[in-house]
Amino acid sequence: MLEDLRPGFRALAQTVVPDASRLDAAGWTEVEGIVERALASRPPALRRQLRLLIRALEWLPFLYYGKRFSALDPVRRNRFLLRIQDSPLRLVRRGFWGLRTLILLGYYGRPGAAAEIGYRADSRGWEARR
Amino acid sequence: MSTYTYDVVIIGSGAGGGTVAQALTPLVKGGRRVLVLERGPRLADDEFTGRELEMASQLYADGGGFLTAEGTMTLAFAHAYGGSTVVYTGTSLTAPERVIRGWSVPGLDYADLLRRSQRYLRENNVHLLEPERINENNRLFVDGGARAGYRVEQFPVNVTGCRGSSLCNLGCPNQAKQGTNRVQLPAAERAGVEVVTRAEALRIEPDRSVVVRVREKPDGGKGLPSEWESGEYRVPAKLVVCAGGAIGSTALLLRSPLPTPHSLGSGFTCHPALILVAEHPRAITNDVGHPKSYFVDRAAEEAFVLETCMYFPFTTAKALSGFGADHSAIMHAFPRLQMILLLACDRATPGNRIAVDRAGQPVVHYHFTRGTVGGLVGGSRASARIFFAAGAVRVHTPFADPPLLEQAEASQIDERISERYFREGSVSLSAAHLMGGCCMGGSAADSVTDSWGVVHGLPWLRVADASLFPDSLEINPYVTIMALADRVADGMLRDAPALLG
Ligand SMILES: Cc1cc2nc3c(=O)[nH]c(=O)nc-3n(C[C@H](O)[C@H](O)[C@H](O)COP(=O)(O)OP(=O)(O)OC[C@H]3O[C@@H](n4cnc5c(N)ncnc54)[C@H](O)[C@@H]3O)c2cc1C
Ligand code: SF4
């Protein structure tokens, strides 16, 4: 579902989670795999809306900056997404919130992310800390 | 379509269904056939890995991302042998007398509910954890709460052999939580009650039969295969009990061709919740130890309850507002994070209700009233006070702009945290205490069932789960659900001679 939207999606992901800029090809495959799997069980209408949103976010900056989102520098990307996040329209805020959630799911759902942030929960509980 | 006949069919195996299954074992001993239908799977002990996405996708409805129709809050509930008790934290409180009296359900007596609750507190080994097993995330809440002037209470919890893995909401990997999957359902099965998993009740027919679809175990999925072959079944019964949870039972009745009361679906409440996070200058024990050991109850005065909590990487990331460098910085501070779960005590309100779409799937409509937002704002302020009093250097709250409050701003909490920053659709709200939809009351004019869970006008149809609550409970609900389900089962035992023949 992300195939043809990859550059836009990755640019959005790197703005939401700047650490994503350090992902290698395998890392991106992992992130996108998690997102794809999460979407697979969702209604087709939701998947369509999401594709539409990613496309709109990629092209909307043309109106403000004369460039696509993925061609913007990080500061402008950030500024643009802040505008979207704080949109007076609930529909737009909701859409962005959904996309942000998916990106966070893809990034922080990777087992490797736990180690990166120092999350260490273990089934053995206290015993694992001794 | 195959037909199997039973005397009693219980739909759902969570806090309500599991309780009824066990309480009806006298019927089985008397030669009656009792069946539990559960749409979720039965997991083996070693399948609980504590891995966030893996467990959430197997146990929760929509992997934990079930959204309200407005798209502004996610609702957490499980589909599994044991229902949401598989993923609950196991904090075990009895209902406040004030709330039960306020419900004004004719015939529902607080003393009766308390007596039944106490029985399940004993049965589930509910006790206070020993001080040496409390982690710093919890101790900071106690210290900060006391310094900030709040009355902090310890949660009784229902664990046996807890190792402190902090993974309760992903299903206990150590079988320590005493949910219905560990206690009531196995006891019921030993006594002869049959439980069929991966079996969804599609509808209940006026002739008292339940139409059921049994699904195959999906490729790569967890859990045992169903006890029945996959396919559709008709299960005629003399008594049918809906215990599919607030959303499951209500949706099932809405798609069944039955003359149910018109208030079916209304009265939905859910204790909308926010995860609040603060950063300490040093690492603390937070992701080890039982996660939820203390609470502050301000329900009566300020419409909120604060509880300790600890969540997993994605859940935490989602709970924080915003994105970018500030968001990442908090995530990287994970070992230094203290967390509080803020629950707003919402009220049953017209418009907040459960419906079904054309395919019969549940749709939950929910709008935030001023009272609920007030509870969220008041609770956010109280949490910030507790965090700073406990020594936090920075507090994250979605009700401030920017959402990070530094220690130097501790004296400006009331100005910085305000309801003017509440914007539906950009605050990560979630709820796990789903209540109402088949509310108890006096008659079909104002409710769906009487105080014994009997659906008005349909004496063979009972409800025995959180959907019975006519308004929010204002405290963690599972013990009260079990007490009500126990009462429903008692009513069934009383009526059995007449209804079962
Ligand atoms: C993450 C989390 C933490 C929680 N922590 C606590 C806590 O610490 N303390 C507390 O008191 N409460 C807690 N709760 C709330 C508590 O778990 C629930 O309130 C309680 O389990 C609800 O009981 P129930 O019987 O109404 O529904 P559930 O326990 O949800 O059980 C309903 C079952 O019915 C099944 N079902 C639904 N429809 C059908 C159908 N048509 N056919 C067949 N089966 C069906 C579902 O699959 C499910 O297994 C928590 C909940 C969650 C999600
Ligand atoms: S903290 Fe205790 S009850 Fe919770 S998952 Fe770990 S062992 Fe189980």
Topology of this structure?
The complex is a heterodimer of chains A (130) and B (501).
Chain A: H1 6-16, H2 25-40, H3 44-59, H4 61-65, H5 74-85, H6 90-108, H7 111-117
Chain B: E1 2-3, E2 8-11, H1 15-23, H2 25-29, E3 34-37, H3 52-59, E4 66-67, E5 74-75, H4 97-103, H5 110-123, H6 136-147, E6 152-154, H7 184-190, E7 194-196, E8 199-204, E9 209-214, E10 231-236, E11 239-242, H8 245-254, E12 273-279, E13 294-298, H9 299-302, E14 304-308, H10 313-319, H11 325-332, E15 337-344, E16 353-356, E17 362-365, H12 370-389, E18 394-396, E19 404-406, H13 413-416, E20 430-431, E21 454-455, E22 458-463, H14 478-500
Parallel strand pairs in B: 1-10, 2-3, 2-11, 3-7, 5-20, 11-22
Antiparallel strand pairs in B: 4-5, 6-13, 8-9, 9-10, 12-15, 12-18, 13-14, 14-15, 16-17, 18-19, 21-22
Helix pairs in contact in B: 1-7, 1-14, 5-14, 6-12
Please, could you describe this protein's structure?
The complex is a heterodimer of chains A (130) and B (501). Chain A has 130 residues and is mainly alpha-helical. Chain A has helices at residues 6-16, 25-40, 44-59, 61-65, 74-85, 90-108, 111-117. Chain A has one domain. In chain A, 66% of the residues lie in helices and 0% in strands. The mean pLDDT of chain A is 93. Chain B is of the alpha/beta class. Chain B folds into two domains: 2-125 and 169-267 and 433-500, FAD/NAD(P)-binding domain, CATH 3.50.50; 131-156 and 269-347 and 369-423, Cholesterol Oxidase, domain 2. A seven-stranded antiparallel β-sheet of chain B has the order 6-13-14-15-12-18-19. In chain B, strands 7-3-2-11-22-21 form a six-stranded mixed β-sheet. In chain B, a hairpin with a 6-residue loop joins strand 4 and strand 5. The longest helix of chain B is centred in the last third of the chain and has 23 residues, at 478-500. Chain B starts with a strand and ends with a helix. Chains A and B meet through helix 2, helix 5, helix 6 and helix 7 of A and helix 3, helix 10 and helix 11 of B. The complex binds flavin-adenine dinucleotide and iron/sulfur cluster (SF4). Iron/sulfur cluster binds at residues 159, 162-168, 172, 174, 176-177, 290 of chain B.
